[in-house]
Amino acid sequence: MKTKETLKAKSLIVRILFMVVLILGVMLIKSQAQSIQVQDRAMIRPSIIHLEPGEKQRFKIVLKATRLNPTRNPEGIIWSVNDIEGGNQEYGVISKEGVYYVPDKMPHPREIHIGGYTEEAQNKQLYATVIIGKAPLQYKSVKIWSKPLNDEVLKIKSPHGFGLDKDGNILMADESADRVYRFSPDGKYLNDIGKGQGESPGEFKWPREVRCSPEGEIYVSDSKGDDPRIQVFSHGGELLHTFADKGRGPSQILRAHGFGFGPDQTVSIVDVDNMRVKTYKRPIGEFLYDFGSWNAYKGMNPGEMNACHGIFVDQNGDVFVNSYYGPTHKFTPRGESLAEFCHGNPPEGSVYFHNLTGDKWGNVYVMARPEGGAEQARLDGGPEHPISVIKFNNNGDFVTEWSYSDSKHRETTAAVDDNGVYYGMYVTENEMVIEIFNEE
Question: Which residues of 408-430 are buried (b: 16+ CB within 10 A; e: fewer)?
């Protein structure tokens, strides 16, 4: 009798423990689901359109379908024109319903950015492109200056990295001279960042990239032995932080080739040799997460990077990365593939894409060159001046393209200021050239 009662008691205890574990498990799953809840992705339509003065066009934002849920329109959208809520008479106005009214007089610039903001989407700020008039959008060279290579004064050897500091001055990383130079927009040499060539903190060995954060700190990628790959300087050039040890580990970098600054105090860095994007807390460099793989499939699966070179992070935190051999990818902040564009176009078109940059409206500018250079492209039936820059909007739609003045340039890099002015740097046989473009 006692044995039966004991078995019954044990069975009851087991059932109770099972129910407790089950309830705790369900509570844990619900808690995790609430903590990692992901908002819907949104898209704006139309994404790009040509309109004439005096015309009107309705824009809308659509939240993409999720499992067993249809697409829908968010409520309470805040519409803007060139970041002006509701627009103005110069660039056109937009109603609360998303109807854009083109001004009667042709605006300058002709490229208009229609913005829609919604709290209901993961990508809260969306942009569409309006080009006023039927003619293609064109950029013109407004200023150009150069510095000789291997002279006795500045000793510039192999310019590679490029950026603008918080005052609009030009930063240039020279990988062979082991220096980071600062010039005025007109080309006057101002000073160096850091302590020059050497193996100690604040010194450089083969610096490849330089960019300025929104807070004004200057980030430089370095290649000293087994030392950290990233050095952070103040605007004045004082060393603040170093991070990212050399290696293949999650927080480590082999060869950094670009910086992208997110809206959440992060810096994302492309690692060419690991074919990954590493994200850190700025400016101290605390590692957060990474995505990508250096062991990519030979045929390239969707979303796989192929010698990633340039990076840009927009105000939603979405990440744009160009592969050197194409294409350009758009990822969510955590690396989910959203889109691919800017593929190679041989024989006369571009097949190499050295870098990219972006502007405050999320447009992406990809630096390109044809296989075999400009001379071979012409022999293959291409244009007299092969394309140097290809511009896409935030959704991956082609906007325009243009060439630098010297078609024989090598690899290029660039930056765009808050006014949409494009600063390009390229190297010829004997010079470093800075060419500045604006929309016609």
Answer: ebebbbbbbeeebbbbbbbbeee
58 — phi, psi (to 5°)?
A: -90, 130
Position of tokens 């192999």?
Answer: 158
Extents of the domains making up the chain: 42-132, 139-439
Q: What is the pLDDT of residues 366-397, one digit of tens each?
A: 998 765 554 444 445 555 678 899 999 999 99
Amino acid at 331: F
Tell me phi and psi for residue 385, to 5 degrees.
-120, 100
The radius of gyration computed from the CA coordinates of the chain, to the nearest angstrom, equals 26
Residue 11's SS3 state is helix
CATH number assigned to the domain covering 139-439: 2.120.10.30
Q: Tokens 């309109």 sit at which residue?
A: 51
Question: For the chain, what is the mean pLDDT?
Answer: 89
For residues 227 and 242, the answer to whether their CB atoms sit within 8 Å is: yes
Choose the weakest-confidence range: 178-187, 317-326, 338-347, 393-402. Answer: 338-347
Continuous segment of H or E residues that includes residue 67? none
Helix, coil or strand: residue 19: helix
Token pair, residue 407, equals 């078609």
Q: Rounded to whole angstroms, how far apart are CA atoms 118 and 121?
A: 6
Residue 121 is classified by DSSP as B
pLDDT of residue 13: 63
The two tokens of residue 229 are 């790959």
For domain 42-132, give the CATH number. 2.60.40.10
Question: In Å, how far are 46, 86, 126, 212, 377 from 129, measured between CA atoms?
Answer: 8, 16, 10, 27, 31
Q: Which residues contact 375 (CB under 8 A, 6 or more apart)?
A: 408
Q: What is the pTM of this model?
A: 0.88
User: Residue 266 to residues 23, 279, 288: CA-CA distances in angstroms?
Assistant: 38, 7, 9
Between strands 125-132 and 78-81, the pairing is unpaired
Q: Which of 287, 331, 284, 292 has its CA nearest to residue 308?
A: 292
